[in-house]
User: What shape does this take?
Amino acid sequence: MTIANAVPTASSGPTSATPAELLFGDLAAELATTRRILERVPDGKADWHPHEKSMTLGRLATHLAELPRFARTLLETEELDWATFEYVPRTLETTTERLALFDAESAAMRAAVEGMTWETVGSRWVMRAGDHVILQGPRGQLLRSIGLSHMVHHRAQLGVYLRLLGVPVPGVYGPSADEA
Assistant: This one.
């Protein structure tokens, strides 16, 4: 089946491809790449940051390790209201702790994505702060943008942090200068 034939239309009827296969076929590779970046975070430098307005290395790495849980929240809830949701950022000090969290949350995220139906992909999800709607849209679209692309964004930031610390940066979509 080609991608063109897999996209459901009103005239062609449903596809045999699942939403996970068709829309998130890159999920396993993106999670594996994120893990490789997290593996490189040096212990003992959690308070380091490249600029006073930047997150610390420890906060950024922990945030990245937590993001698969956020993606799963998007799939398992109707909305996220920051006015009523008590989010307390975790404080993890070691790469081992962050990898354990990332591995557990990634496995749960993969299971949630694999369980998506076409109805779920098209259903509406909302992020709000009380009456203020921050964003809303189809879950499939939001999962790509604030679930996966958000992770890729912070992974790239972490790669810059590693470079500035003199830590070899792993390849992402091909070899890095450190692997060439």
